[in-house]
Design brief:
The complex is a heterodimer.
Chain A lengths: L1 H41 L4 H9 L3 H17 L12 H38 L4 H30 L1
Helix pairs in contact in A: 1-2, 1-3, 1-4, 2-4, 3-4, 3-5, 4-5
Chain B lengths: L1 E8 L3 H11 L2 E4 L7 E2 L9 H13 L7 H7 L3 E4 H9 L4 H35 L14 E7 L9 H11 L4 E7 L2 E7 L3 H10 L3 E3 L8 H54 L3 E2 L3 E8 L4 H10 L4 E5 L22 H7 L10 H16 L2 H17 L4 H24 L12 H5 L9 H29 L3 H25 L8 H20 L4 H25 L2 H23 L6 H40 L17 E4 L2
Helix pairs in contact in B: 1-8, 1-9, 2-5, 2-8, 5-8, 11-13, 11-19, 11-20, 12-13, 15-16, 15-18, 15-20, 16-17, 17-18, 19-20
Classes of the chains: A mainly alpha, B alpha+beta.
């Protein structure tokens, strides 16, 4: 039972890491997409820039995917080794290691979407503001990236 | 970009502007010199142009359909020589007779359609009345009035006639009812009791049907209306044929003239920015320096009395920005333009991002099959179609990044999601990475590319500062960070045992030196003692930004993984339906084709956007500081015409 719990916790860690990131990106991209659709209706020529702005909050989902793969890889699950044994306490470490990416991804994805939606209004007023709008939205993502960093350090620490 | 003043003899203004427009060489700004008079010009075809455009739009509905592939292959625009353009520009007044004919045709269409609309309304009313055996002229006499009444009965056993009889009897109204169906009857009442009868009819929630026009019985009138309708529809069909004939004979001419008149209107709009002296018209604006010689040569060739002189840039005036690159790099301008123009004093980033974008797109898609699909699609567009110049340039970009995807896909073993162990031995031999089985090397590779691109960005900032006369500032701001990156690389290489020039401790000491240099260099920008201290520590804090930038490159791994996983899932689903009796193979083939087409589209979009984002957020931020306004010269917008050499 103890050994089973370890593997299950690794799976849960990978799943939560990925799904929280996906959820953050989905909500964030939804906010940005709504604003972008309004602008494209008025100015179809801005579609490329709007697509870029909508894609910005998609990074958190990508980090979630990376995190899930790293958890599965570091724990040895990805290799498909049938003799793999993971203790419950080790499994819990992998579970905890995924949380920084997941939670930071969820929250920053949502807020990046809100900033991206405001940036879209900025671009609608003047196309020359694209660089500024991208930069403002990218600032929020910094915290998702730090989540990736901490998770990565935690994953390395488990093996040490 | 040069700020210039163009001085032209008043008789040759339009010819001179046509030369500038042909070359797309000059963006005009308002002349503010108060010593000269305003230019009062009116576009002579201000009323003709919208009529020509309207006529062209109308006839385009009747233009023979051209197949999609034929339109791609042969193009939709008319090729004209420069001489033909000039000749036609001088003759555009002739188009008015065609426009008048098309407008007459439109009026006929409108009249006949209105008649048809009215006849259809009569037909609808008469269709309801047609069972009534009385003449319409007899529906209203000096004594009685006959109206048609309808009610949708809620219950089958309710008959409208019975309901009306009961209601009229209760109201003491004299009546005669001619039943047509259980829900439709004709009611005849005395004229003096008509209003009371209508009240009764409304009280039982029945509906009075409009009385038709005509003399004969509704059935005969209906036949007459239907005959008139058939005649009118025949006439509309004839008009339709005439419109199709007009479209074949006149549409191209109308489109060409609309385009030429539009160009002329833009020239007149440019004239509105000018001022006048007794004999000359004076313009100001930004001249594309590379096109100056060609413009002057054309002025001489066409004997135009005009001169271009350098003008003073006023305070606060910023030149517009145009980017131009070698034909091999030019396709990547689409990525730069997606972001917007760099500042006037910034470097054009296109040539620097081209290599990285080429590489990153391949890393995000990492599939030989999808790369080949992009290569084949773009080659088809380039070799077998006549599309607009912008589309051709984008097809070239797809060709390049498709080729990158093929090469990187081969190194990563990506072949439409097929497991590497199922591949032929030669293909297995060239595979260097296994992103799904062992993602860590790809993760580190992605971060290494991040370090490389950030370092290139820092070097470009030094170069950019040098170009703007601040080489020392550039070296002091970026140099310590470049040193820190070099120390970091040395640390990693030493830690994994690739190099052993210095010990880890010595590298640590070097890092302290690097950090001190960063603090000192950043501190010099602060004002006062406290300002310098704050600036120094803020300089060190920039390291957080660099760390965040580099980790962002992990998306290269994630997007590559996503492509492989989706392609694998498509193959899995296709293989699951193979066992279905008889149609299993067909089902599997359909799922395979649609699934991979979907994956190709979704992942190509993702790869493009995220590769572009790495340029905009992580790369451009290192050396682009301004935001430029795009150079928008007086030019020819070629929607219907392409102008070739004479």
């Amino acid at each position: 039972m103890e050994l089973f719990t370890g593997t299950a916790l690794v799976f849960a860690g990978a799943a939560i890491t990925a799904v929280l990131g996906f959820a953050g990106s989905a909500v964030g991209m939804g906010y940005a997409g709504q604003a972008a659709a309004g602008v494209v209706g008025e100015k179809p020529s801005l579609f490329g820039k709007m697509l870029l702005m909508q894609a910005l909050p998609g990074s958190q989902g990508i980090y979630g995917l990376v995190g899930a793969f790293l958890i599965l890889n570091f724990s040895g699950v990805l290799g498909g080794d049938p003799s793999l044994v993971i203790e419950g306490s080790t499994g819990m470490k992998y579970f905890m290691a995924g949380l920084p990416i997941g939670i930071a991804g969820l929250v920053s994805g949502i807020y990046q979407g809100i900033v991206a939606a405001s940036g879209i209004s900025l671009i609608a007023k003047d196309e020359a503001n694209t660089g500024r709008a991208v930069t403002l939205a990218a600032m929020v993502e910094t915290w998702a990236i730090f989540g990736v960093l901490i998770s990565f350090i935690l994953l390395i620490s488990i093996g040490a | 970009m040069q700020k210039v003043r163009l001085i032209v003899h008043q008789d040759e203004v339009d010819t001179a502007l046509a030369v500038l427009q042909r070359h797309g060489a000059m963006q005009f700004t308002d002349v503010t010199d108060e010593t000269m008079g305003d230019t009062a010009v009116v576009f002579p075809h201000a009323t003709l142009l919208p009529r020509v455009q309207h006529a062209a739009n109308f006839l385009s509905q009747y233009s023979p359909n051209v197949g999609f592939f034929k339109a791609l292959r042969e193009g939709t625009r008319t090729n004209m020589s420069e001489k033909a353009v000039q000749k036609r520009t001088a003759e555009t007044d002739d188009i008015e007779s065609i426009v008048v004919d098309v407008e007459a045709l439109q009026v006929e269409f409108a009249d006949k359609n209105e008649i048809i609309r009215r006849l259809e309304e009569r037909e609808a009313i008469l269709t309801v009345w047609k069972e009534l055996p009385y003449k319409i002229s007899e529906l209203h006499t000096g004594l009685t009035t006959t109206r048609l009444v309808r009610r949708n009965n809620p219950r089958k056993e309710d008959v409208l006639r019975d309901i009306l009889e009961t209601a009229f009897n209760e109201a003491n109204i004299s009546y005669a009812i001619t039943p047509i169906s259980t829900e439709l009857v004709a009611v005849t009442v005395l004229n003096e009791e008509l209003s009371a009868a209508i009240t009764v009819i409304e009280s039982i929630k029945a509906e009075l049907i409009s009385t038709p026009l005509g003399e004969e019985t509704p059935e005969i009138e209906l036949i007459k209306v239907q005959e008139s309708l058939a005649k009118m529809r025949g006439e509309i069909a004839l008009l339709h044929d005439q419109a199709e004939h007009f479209a074949i004979t006149h549409l191209k001419t109308l489109q060409i003239d609309a385009e030429l008149l539009n160009w002329e209107r833009n020239r007149f709009a440019a004239r509105a920015t000018s001022k006048q002296t007794t004999f000359t018209t004076v313009f100001e604006g930004w001249l594309h320096a590379g096109k100056k010689d060609a413009v002057l040569a054309d002025f001489v060739a066409q004997d135009i009395t005009a001169m271009l002189v350098e003008a003073e840039i006023k305070d606060g005036e910023v030149p517009p920005v145009e980017i131009e690159n070698h034909p091999l790099v030019a396709p990547f301008e689409a990525v730069t333009r997606l972001y917007g123009m760099p500042g006037y004093k910034d470097l054009d980033p296109t040539v620097f991002l081209a290599g990285f974008f080429f590489l990153f797109f391949g890393l995000c898609l990492t599939d030989v099959g999808y790369g080949l699909a992009l290569v084949i699609g773009s080659l088809f567009i380039l070799l077998f179609t006549k599309v607009a110049a912008g589309t051709r340039l984008f097809a070239k970009l797809l060709l390049f990044i498709g080729a990158s995807t093929v090469a990187i896909g081969a190194l990563f073993g990506g072949y439409l999601g097929i497991a590497p162990e199922s591949l032929p031995a030669p293909l297995q031999a060239i595979q260097l990475f296994d992103p799904i089985g062992n993602p860590l090397p790809v993760f580190y590779l992605a971060l290494a590319f991040g370090v490389l691109q950030v370092m290139v960005g820092l070097l470009l900032k030094i170069y950019s500062d040098a170009c703007n006369g601040d080489l020392l500032g550039g070296i002091l701001d970026q140099g310590p960070w470049l040193l820190m990156f070099a120390i970091g690389i040395l640390y990693v290489l030493t830690a994994v045992g690739y190099v052993s020039i210095l010990t880890i401790n010595q590298i640590g000491n070097l890092a302290i030196v690097g950090a001190v240099l960063i603090v000192l260099a950043a501190g010099r920008n602060g004002e006062g003692v406290f300002g310098k201290i704050i600036a120094a520590f803020l300089g060190l804090y920039a390291g957080v930004g660099f760390l965040s930038d580099i980790l962002s490159y992990s998306r290269l791994l994630a997007l590559g993984l996503a492509t492989s996983a989706l392609a694998f899932a498509v193959n899995l689903i296709a293989s699951m339906v193979l066992g279905v009796p008889y149609i299993g193979f067909i089902l599997a083939a359909v799922i395979f084709l649609i699934g991979h087409a979907f994956t190709l589209i979704i992942n190509t979009l993702g790869a493009f956007i995220h590769s572009a984002r790495l340029q905009f957020v992580e790369f451009f931020s290192k050396f682009i500081v301004g935001t430029g306004k795009e150079f928008t010269p007086l030019t020819r917008s070629e929607d219907y015409v392409t102008v070739g050499d004479d």
